[in-house]
Amino acid sequence: MSRRGTLDVIVVGAGVVGAAAALAFARDGWSVALVETREPPRWSPTPPFEQGIDLRVYAFAPDNADLLDELGVWRDVSQARVQPYRGMRVWDAAGGGELAFDADAFGQRELGWIVEHALLVDKLWTALPGAGVHLHCPDSVVGLEQDDHAVHLQLDSGTRLRARLVVAADGAGSKLRSLAGIETAAHDYHQRGLVAFVESEQPHQDTCWQRFLPTGPLAFLPFASGHDGRTSSIVWTLPDHEAERLLHADESTFLRELETAFAGTLGAITAVSARAAFPLRRQLAQSYVSGRVAVAGDAAHVVHPLAGQGVNLGLRDVLALRRVLREARHRHAGHADPGAPQALSRWARQQRSDNAMAAYAFDGLNRLFSNDGLAATLLRGPLLGLAGRLPPLTHAFWRRAAGR
Fold this sequence. Notes:
Shape: globular
CATH superfamily: FAD/NAD(P)-binding domain
Number of domains: 1
Distance between the termini: 36 Å
Mean pLDDT: 89
Largest sheet: 9 strands, mixed
CATH architecture: 3-Layer(bba) Sandwich
Radius of gyration: 22 Å
CATH topology: FAD/NAD(P)-binding domain
Structural class: alpha+beta
């Protein structure tokens, strides 16, 4: 913090994206504060079928694992509990072909990792104090003012903070985004993602499986546990009314319908954890910057989960913004203004374009595959099969998803 009490960066919101952003900027030598409403619970290696475990997992891409490795966090994460996945299989219930990805074919040890949300947040939080991040928790932003030189935040505790750049990473319902006057455009899919841990008769084979159904995709993601490679995290996209019904169905009914939906691909499903469901929508910020306030992660973009890219896109916002700030510091011999409009606007244009393209691509896939119309049914299986028979195309898909 400078002698005038002005920080370089304040990050609001300390989920995966916000905590990673604060840690990255602090590691680069900026003075950083982080504001969060509540301290996250400590992660523990709770078995996936015990009550109280966080059901949220991510298909973590290699470029973001590289980021956490550079920040000194990935080793702790990977030693705690991660599941590498070496294959992906995508097919349509109507038949017609399969799209397959294999690590060996790409010359990789793995395509990515399935990682728990709670574990990522815990390890990032553990690293924050040692990096010099000033934590304001529990606290929240209740007021915002800015001028040409700084942003002034009023916190609920009465504390006032001032910084040259403020990053809103406080989620899809971002209070800071609203205070900054940034509007969003949203589309409700009238679907929910039903999530749970399950145990299958056959091993998951270190593979992510996704079957497209007229009601929406069903994904089985391999999960690290002591069950001989038979535990998976499921994400089942369903219309609202069906998700509500299955969320409250008895266990035998749920397992029977899940086995049918997955066509017995991994045999009988013999165990299930608690279940949860979350509403699905596309939501895009109309701008990523307002003055010296930037939005990132879910505060900037919410996308359909069918490609598992939500947190990966958010961390790429951080990667790109970190790169811009580093370049500015290099050009100005260490005296850069992190909230300088020219650098922020360049970052905002690029990220908004990339994320909007991704969001609408996922939207198009959801419309094509969550559809029982004759034309869509006849097209989608052969399209997957054709893509699977074109190695350059599958390589391009993987490089895009991996951030390569």
